[in-house]
Amino acid sequence: MGKRRAGRELLRSLSKKQKKHLREFGEEHPFFDKVFACRLLGCSCCCCLHLCFPLQSEDSDKSSAESDSETEVEQVSGYHKLLATLKTSPESESEEEEDESESEEAEESEAEMDSERSQEAGEAEGGEEDENDVPEEEEATDTAEQMLSQEQADGTDTSCDPRHGVIEEFTDVKHESEFSLETNFMEEESGDCNADRRDNNPFKQHMDKELEEKEIEKMSTLPRTSSQNQWPRLGQVIFSSTLEKQKTLKADKEVDVKQLHLHKPLESTWPKVNKQFLSAVDKPTDSCFTPLQRELFCIMNSYRDLFYPERNALTNGEEIRHAYCLHALNHVLKANAQVLSNNAKRRDRKPGTDTDDHRDQGLTRPKVLMIVPFRECALRIVHIFISLLEVNDKKRIDVSNKKRFKGEFGSDPEEKPPNLKRPEDYEAVFAGNIDDHFRIGVAILQKSMRLYAPFYSSDIIIASPLGIRTVIGAEGEKRDFDFLSSIEILIIDQADIYLMQNWEHVLHLMKHINLLPLDSHGVDFSRVRMLNLNNWSKYYRQTLLFSALQDPQINSVFNKHCFNYTGQVAVRNVPLTGSISHVMVQLPHVFRRLEADSVTSVIDARFQFFIDKVLPEYRDAIMSHTLIYVPSYFDYVRLRNYFKKEDLNFTHICEYTKKAAVCRARRFFLKGEKQFLLFTERFHFYKRYTIKGIRNLIFYELPTYSHFYSEICNMLKARDSGVDATWTCTVLYSKYDAQKLAAVVGIDRTAQMLQSKKNVHLFVTGEN
């Protein structure tokens, strides 16, 4: 009985994928990544710095050893021992059962949660079926051995299958010599070696310019001078630079592919790849770029830094992705073609001749770093690269480890989409594989591409902020950031999402990019550019920053960590109306201004203003059903502790709240058993649940995303006659919230509200 009970407890603790693996192979699923293990053990190492809502896929970065399939009798592993120590007591099991029953009651009270309950029930039934239908261990082991032998006979790389355990993070070392820049030469038939020698080539103009120490000193000490211009599609564009005599960039009305100085294969492939976005363009003369792409690529191709804060996943997200992929690939192909061409010159030179004209490399090989939030984004980027490199169906490029890449970065076809109806922008952002802990190196050499290349043999690195942070490490740990020393193009896409994850990872990256490496890594110093040897790489690095909004933290990265000598370009359009015009319910809005001496003191000033001026007005039982929207998690913890100390009747929901507790809190709030509901912005970002029963709404701070304001306000719905008149909405703001305030109420009202120190009352009729 003891063994049977222990076996049932073990199966109960396994996830659905682990049970499936046990049923198919007769052994436990390999232990997942270090981050997951550290969470179980309560570790606080660098891997545990992932402070965002846990949306990670279970398939990310597996690091455990694969079980020996030839062993007939499975031994008790350390994984089982670890699970045995994590067993809950009977009391905690009963509490979990109570939570589950309460969550089921809460789901029954709301129609939109019915689908989740049925899905949970289906998973529970599936779990019982898995438990009862576990085959004999020897038969499963034989089946696994047959599959492995069959795959090996077919020449398949079994390590790329997520079902098989991986000892450590996979890197492709088999094709190292084939993709080495030092040992390869330019193919004569390509003709690309002569194509990039033109004097007006933007790549050569930017990389071959030799700065003087006086200019470096100016960029380090003097402030930037700025000017603005109005472009047809981008709108108000701000140009800034420290160096004098910078040419003003003008938008091209029409673009000829041949005038862009693209690498030879891209001239023919780009119009085909970008054709999907040109159907809605009215002008047939501009046959290769949309109006937005044309102006963005004009800035990118000039090698200026760019900040574009109007990226929208629904409308222009893919257009922008294609544009910066074209620019990044064009840069890599030109840089590699220059190296291969110089290899041939060095090979053919006469013995004894010494020349210093072939400085064409950095201290390390990686040239482009692309930061994206999810694996799905990396998947789409690689697909764009492949499409741009394939001239036609007959001339397909050779892509190494493509099957493995699709398995790890693609979405699970068996995964059922959620039945809850969510906004379109949510579906666009969270499409596909949303694991946010990944990194992959890409090496490109003429007509071949290698995925999973080691970082020091890669041309392009695609990673998430968390994935790159775990490689860089922290003080006192094993650290490696030399591969960032010679990054020439840094692309940070969807920067607003990192505010919802952990912005510290982005800041940590910016502090470690373009530093002198601690090791030579086998570089030939006679080929290294002088700008790299002088530690001036950051003054040549181009940074492309794309976001869905303007935020002080994002602006700070662009202003303080971008030193490009060619200057910076930022799009600064001001909203005219604001998201308050999308509020569809009749609701009075009261904007209450608080005073603060500085940005650092506004946090304490807001808390004191709330507990002294705002909260006393809502303590009365009449002001029940009050939702307090809190954008910052730290403010949420501070308010929660204060509410507990004051013994207020409240409940709370944050991004770390378990599902049963969320359902229980929603039910208590709906029925009026709890007067207050503390609600974090990150929970709303990741879940988008509709909170019912709201009568009074308090925005402790203006939301990061302006459309969240209208979404939360539209959750108020009358359940009986006469309730509409009691609805209230209170918003706290200070003079330091100008950008967020303008996104909500518009630029005209913002100017009036910042000039006046009185509270502002607005009434939205639902027709504005």
From TrEMBL:
It is found in: Nucleus, Nucleolus. Its main location: nucleus. SUPFAM superfamilies: P-loop containing nucleoside triphosphate hydrolases. It comes from the Eukaryota. Residues 579-763 form the UTP25 C-terminal domain. Residues 350-361 have a biased composition (Basic and acidic residues). Residues 59-145, 341-361 are annotated as: Disordered. GO terms for molecular function: rRNA binding; U3 snoRNA binding. Residues 92-113, 122-142 have a biased composition (Acidic residues). It holds the Pfam family UTP25_NTPase-like. Coiled coil: none annotated. GO terms for biological process: maturation of SSU-rRNA from tricistronic rRNA transcript (SSU-rRNA, 5.8S rRNA, LSU-rRNA). Keywords: Developmental protein, Nucleus, Phosphoprotein. Residues 303-569 form the UTP25 NTP hydrolase-like domain. One of its GO terms (cellular component) is small-subunit processome. Component of the ribosomal small subunit processome for the biogenesis of ribosomes, functions in pre-ribosomal RNA (pre-rRNA) processing. Essential for embryonic development in part through the regulation of p53 pathway. Controls the expansion growth of digestive organs and liver. Also involved in the sympathetic neuronal development. Mediates, with CAPN3, the proteasome-independent degradation of p53/TP53. PANTHER family: ORF PROTEIN-RELATED (PTHR12933), U3 SMALL NUCLEOLAR RNA-ASSOCIATED PROTEIN 25 HOMOLOG (PTHR12933:SF0). Interacts with CAPN3; the interaction is required for CAPN3 translocation to the nucleolus. Belongs to the UTP25 family. This is U3 small nucleolar RNA-associated protein 25 homolog.
